Amino acid sequence: MGVLSSLVTLLATTTSSLDQPVTNGLSLLGTLGAHSLPKFLSDVRLVDGSPWGDHNCTNTNPYKAAPDTGVVRKYDFTISRGILSPDGYERSLLLVNGQYPAPTIEANWGDTIEVTVTNNITGVAEGTSVHWHGFLQHQSQWMDGTPGFTQCPIAPQKTFTYQFRAELFGTSWYHAHYSAQYTDGVVGAVVVYGPTPKDYDIDIGPILLSDWYHVDYYTTVRSLTAARPGLPPPQPTSDNNLINGKMNFDCSVATNTSVKCSSNAGLSKFKFQSGKTHRLRLINTGADASQQFSIDNHTMTVIANDFVPVQPYNTTVVTLGIGQRTDVIVEADGDSHEAYWIRSNATCAKANQPYALAVLYYENADVDGLPKSSPWNSPSIGCANDPLETTVPMYAINPGEPAETTTLNMTVGQNATGHWLWYMNNSSFRTDYNQPVLLLAEGGNTSYPDSPEWNVVNTGSASSYRFIVNNDTPTSHPMHFHGHNMYILAVGTGVWDGTIVRPDNPQRRDVQNVPANGYLVWQADADNPGTWPFHCHIAWHASTGLSVDILENPGQIEHLAIPEASYQLCQEWQTFSATGQVDQIDSGLRL
Length: 591
Ligand SMILES: *[C@@H]1O[C@H](CO)[C@@H](O)[C@H](O)[C@H]1NC(C)=O
Ligand SMILES: *[C@@H]1O[C@H](CO)[C@@H](O)[C@H](O)[C@H]1NC(C)=O
Ligand SMILES: *[C@@H]1O[C@H](CO)[C@@H](O)[C@H](O)[C@H]1NC(C)=O
Ligand SMILES: *[C@@H]1O[C@H](CO)[C@@H](O)[C@H](O)[C@H]1NC(C)=O
Ligand SMILES: *[C@@H]1O[C@H](CO)[C@@H](O)[C@H](O)[C@H]1NC(C)=O
Ligand SMILES: *[C@@H]1O[C@H](CO)[C@@H](O)[C@H](O)[C@H]1NC(C)=O
Ligand SMILES: *[C@@H]1O[C@H](CO)[C@@H](O)[C@H](O)[C@H]1NC(C)=O
Ligand SMILES: *[C@@H]1O[C@H](CO)[C@@H](O)[C@H](O)[C@H]1NC(C)=O
Ligand SMILES: *[C@@H]1O[C@H](CO)[C@@H](O)[C@H](O)[C@H]1NC(C)=O
Ligand SMILES: *[C@@H]1O[C@H](CO)[C@@H](O)[C@H](O)[C@H]1NC(C)=O
Ligand SMILES: *[C@@H]1O[C@H](CO)[C@@H](O)[C@H](O)[C@H]1NC(C)=O
Ligand SMILES: [Cu+2]
Description:
Elements: H1 3-13, H2 20-24, H3 62-65, E1 72-84, E2 91-96, E3 102-108, E4 112-120, E5 130-132, E6 159-165, E7 170-176, E8 187-193, E9 202-212, H4 217-224, E10 240-243, E11 268-272, E12 277-284, E13 290-295, E14 300-305, E15 308-315, E16 318-320, E17 325-331, E18 339-347, E19 355-362, E20 404-414, E21 420-424, H5 437-442, E22 456-458, E23 464-471, E24 477-481, E25 486-493, E26 507-509, E27 511-514, E28 518-525, E29 530-536, H6 539-543, E30 547-552, H7 554-557, H8 564-577
Parallel strand pairs: 1-4, 3-8, 9-12, 11-19, 20-23, 22-30
Antiparallel strand pairs: 1-2, 4-6, 5-7, 7-8, 9-10, 12-17, 13-16, 13-18, 14-15, 14-17, 18-19, 20-21, 23-28, 24-27, 24-29, 25-26, 25-28, 29-30
Bound molecules: 2-acetamido-2-deoxy-beta-D-glucopyranose (NAG) (11 copies) and copper (II) ion.
Keywords: Copper, Glycoprotein, Metal-binding, Oxidoreductase, Repeat, Signal
GO molecular function: copper ion binding; oxidoreductase activity
Protein name: Laccase
């Protein structure tokens, strides 16, 4: 469907849209009723006017000296099946507390976040687990939410309480990490209030960007993992692109005409106040596509990439690979009676309708009207993140030479039975839900001769490690590392020539795009003994093997105080899996 026809659909139907409970359940995101966020949660004792005292972006190394407020922020999540029509096309989703997008978690820098997760997935019962993207999990390595790595899945009708500290601040998200479950709706924002590289007046809050499918994840992954002898690789195609869980859909192009469908679901709406500066927290929560985000007639000032505050720079387009976040400040310098289009274009993936729209209303604009604004005339910038030269962390760290350097080659191919798989160093990842590597390592076992497909890379007692990742595939990949921020030393096409961008203060982040037929060179400090996935955040690629398990400092894992609850989870999972209901259709890893 072309942009024009989708715009016509919008124009024809804007006055009446579906009710919020029909599109998004109990979530208020994307409505004018969504409240703006505070500068911090003020229900605590302040020191020097803030909950985190005099710590700021330039005087504190957050990896070593994050504040500890002692405050615990508690949340209760129940994951259940539900039926919604986010874009007007009805489908079954997995919902957290009846909401899509899932509830936003808020905390101050240095607080502890505690989330009790109950698995209420019924009908076809499934395991689950929740990953807190970008959180370091120092001293809570078993709380990362990755089945087969740090825990057994939470069995149906069972509960697990996650507890971890907000050592970093800014914008992130959480999502199910069991198979491709998150693409069915288990995605929510996390806002950690902290210092900012540049002041602003109003915090608009999280803006989740996501390609969207009209079929459930299980159906997609089933076809993805089927044998296709002699056939090209399967490429799932998204049906729409959503902003905070909303977009319209042209029902006349629906492939299944017996599904309930309305072409007037309604768009996300945001408010600007003339003359004020607004903070937007952009997050790509999608399955396959990169996002190119822009606001007609407005320039954006980038202040953070992932959980890393950067020296502010201006742009008209923000590119986000899956899992990436970018915080921007936007000055409301438009006309107070106008409305403007917010756009997010899904790129680098197959899409039937890649153009997401939302509406930005100034204070005197008619909130029933639609904008007439035109997009920036921006050149296509492919799938690449902003140049490393542009992204300068506020807190400078020189990583120095690594204690250890390893090459890792990414390839794609068909095995002897015609299954298309992604490989890391010639081995396609597959986990064992029943044997989390962290728990084996706590018991002193770090050798798995019968399980090469666990792709464990043991960095031993090295104090730091560097990976030269060669992407020998014709596709770019958003590569995510758990438990750390990566120092991003070099990115490009072809083969690395040994040059490092700004060795005294390289860009740091937790997801970085590696170009097609290119390289990504990254380094990490081995300050976090544990088992950490380094994987592609494209759900379909992780499902079919694009991951390794970096086993860091196993000697120290033996001394971690992993609580009894983690072992209890495995007993419950053992009991459930013994009933034969577990249908592991893929690598098991999913973000
Ligand atoms: C951070 O705090 C230090 C004092 O500890 C001060 O010198 C510096 O200007 C502050 N930086 C910012 C960006 O506020
Ligand atoms: C559990 O899921 C079922 C079916 O979706 C739903 O009816 C029930 O309300 C859910 N329970 C809770 C506590 O959310
Ligand atoms: C079309 O949707 C209906 C109603 O949800 C469903 O019963 C049917 O199986 C679907 N058909 C196909 C081909 O997916
Ligand atoms: C938006 O920018 C375009 C191109 O610069 C300009 O022609 C137009 O007047 C602007 N619109 C508003 C409402 O500011
Ligand atoms: C960045 O954009 C802001 C707001 O539009 C503007 O005030 C500022 O001058 C720009 N900075 C640069 C370096 O262009
Ligand atoms: C997004 O797509 C629209 C519609 O095709 C196009 O006009 C616009 O330039 C695109 N924006 C970016 C940033 O590529
Ligand atoms: C890994 O990739 C690099 C760059 O493409 C290539 O030179 C090298 O031979 C590959 N190594 C293996 C073992 O395939
Ligand atoms: C190919 O990969 C699939 C999926 O992992 C697996 O089930 C199948 O056994 C593999 N075939 C061979 C010959 O190894
Ligand atoms: C990947 O293969 C290369 C070449 O054989 C080897 O040097 C490297 O150590 C391997 N990497 C890992 C993580 O095993
Ligand atoms: C990759 O694995 C296949 C099958 O196990 C083997 O034949 C091939 O030699 C391996 N290639 C490399 C570069 O290790
Ligand atoms: C370690 O665990 C693996 C996987 O369960 C098992 O195959 C192996 O025998 C264990 N090794 C020891 C020494 O227990
Ligand atoms: Cu990928």
